[in-house]
Amino acid sequence: MAEIGYGYGSEWQLLRYLGHHRDYLNKEILKQLKHLNLTNGETPQWKDYPVNENRLSMDGELTGIECFNEEIQSRIQTEWKTFWPQSGSSHNWDGVFTIGEKWFLVEAKAHLDETHQKCQAKSEDSIKKIIDAFIVTCDDEELAKKWYQSDCYQLANRLAFIKFCENQGIEAKLVYINFLNGWIKNETGIKSVETEDDWKKVWDEEYKTLSLTDKQKESIVHVYIDCLKG
């Protein structure tokens, strides 16, 4: 996980909105969840993160099934070790909140290239386990291999996690918080995303590359936050 940017980037913006504009953030999230009939308007309950003294921010992330409470972790730990490689980096969640019994796993994005990632697994055992997990998720061996080889790997492995949750009786959704104007304070040359349509074009391309079904698309919620508002 990269160090947090100072004044820019997805991690900074999410932390900023959770700390300074939480009511606004929750309102925008609930607006979309209500539209999708996923809530009656209950307030999201955000989960705290662990301390990590090795990072400048002094905070770490929740990875893999650490996003869940101890009771759920204990119940599904054996199945998780069978389903997904335990070496290397697991799923790092930018944020986690619950509404009732539903779990919402947050990925924050602030520039377009953040959506494109390839699998970095090296060992044959890990690669096989990932592809097997993708087969379970998309029910097609050739498509599973395409998922593994594509630069849409992050979305693919998040969908695999959601499928794992479904198989364990856990109601979970992915929430992509797509920031607009989230990099205007940086000096790296990376451009901010200015419109929702720019984000939607990228996600439509990823959906097409992964040949997502309507049911798989229903596992994903997109929220758009303009960093100039709050």
Describe this structure in words.
By secondary structure, the chain is an alpha/beta fold. The chain has one domain. It is 42% helix and 15% strand. The chain contains eight helices and seven strands; from the N terminus they run ααββαβββαααβααβ. α1 crosses α2, α4 packs across α5 and α4 crosses α6. The longest helix has 15 residues. The radius of gyration is 17 Å and the shape is globular. The model has no long low-confidence stretch (mean pLDDT 93).
The tally of helices reads: 8
Please write the string of helix (H) and strand (E) elements: HHEEHEEEHHHEHHE
Strand content: 15-25%
What is the mean pLDDT?
Answer: 93
The residue fraction in helices comes out at 40-55%
Distance between the termini: 27 Å
Biggest sheet layout: 5 strands, mixed
Count of strand segments: 7
Shape: globular
The parts where pLDDT drops under 50 for at least 5 residues are: none
* C-alpha Rg (nearest Å): 17 Å
Widest β-sheet, arrangement of strands:
1-4-5-6-7
Number of domains: 1
**Helix/strand-derived class?**
alpha/beta
Main features:
230 residues, alpha/beta, five-stranded mixed β-sheet, two-stranded antiparallel sheet, 8 helices
Secondary structure layout plus pairing:
Layout lengths: L9 H11 L1 H14 L9 E2 L15 E2 L6 H14 L8 E2 L1 E5 L2 E8 L14 H15 L2 H9 L3 H15 L4 E9 L15 H14 L4 H4 L2 E7 L4
Parallel strand pairs: 5-6, 6-7
Antiparallel strand pairs: 1-4, 2-3, 4-5
Helix pairs in contact: 1-2, 4-5, 4-6
